[in-house]
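Board notes (copied after class):
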Amino acid sequence: ADGSKKSNSGFGTRYPFHVIADIALNSGTVISEKVLLNFPLPGNYEVFIFEKNGKEEKLLSGLIGEMKLSADGTKLAYFLGSKNQDFALADLWTINNDGTGNKLIISRNAFPEKTAFWKINSFSKDKTKVYGTFSRNSHGIPGGFYSIDLITGKFTKLLPDIASYDLSFSADGELVSYVVPSDFDCSSDQPLCDEIPPYFVEVLNMDTRATTTISKSQENILGKPTFSPENNSLLYLVAPGYGDGGKLNLVDIPANVTREVVISTNDIVSFAFAGNDRIIYIETKAINQSSFWNDYRLFSIKRDGSDKREIDSSEKKIEILGIFE
């Protein structure tokens, strides 16, 4: 993260797997899946566990959909489908990372919203609940934020319509941040609904259910709010539109003060906190008119916007999976 080292080493170099961007920071566990049948037909997957010590084990196989690893890397929640059924209409299961305790939590018929578009966002800190969001239909209309009790199977609705792809949790699990537009326009023939500005970045206190608006923008897209490890700062993206550059804003939550940390003419596609004083982020741009997002650059910068360093670059896609201490 300080720009002093570059490494080509990584997990699973012997397997042509697709990495689920999910990592347990405390244990250094990475979850990945290996595609056995070609898309677009849903096929079997093998789910592997990779650890920092080089250990790797196959954990699951089958028609596995959405997955989420607990923060300590000990438990996995996943959706399991069956043959001759819609791939996304699946049962919710949990399993321990050593392969024990594989348990059906809720069958597809017991979900309160009859939809095929559920997403698992996070485990609760004590791992007795998972939090999930769903889209109401194939147009991508967000349909609420729920907690699911892994012991009783009870659903509790915590928030109304939110954009699930921009939802994040603080490290202690007490705060949730998300982005929500004012409304959605689904009148066109396009596969996705149009989001109607202004956009809001909001924070939900999980104990009190109180919400606080962090930012509002009529002109720009706001996205990907991310909590700092100490839970007192929030980093989020401000972008005029795809291909138009962007910036990263850092919010001091207790003081309610926002400052610009990164301003770029390139698109910012990913970012994360690194330690107590730095941020890493990825910029990308098209190399020519016939390509898009083909030049990736990974940077490190201090939280005050100083000491910017380029860590790596590639014409292939670069992703930030997580930060190891």
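Comment from the instructor: The two ends are 11 Å apart (CA to CA). The CA atoms of residues 244 and 307 lie 24 Å apart.
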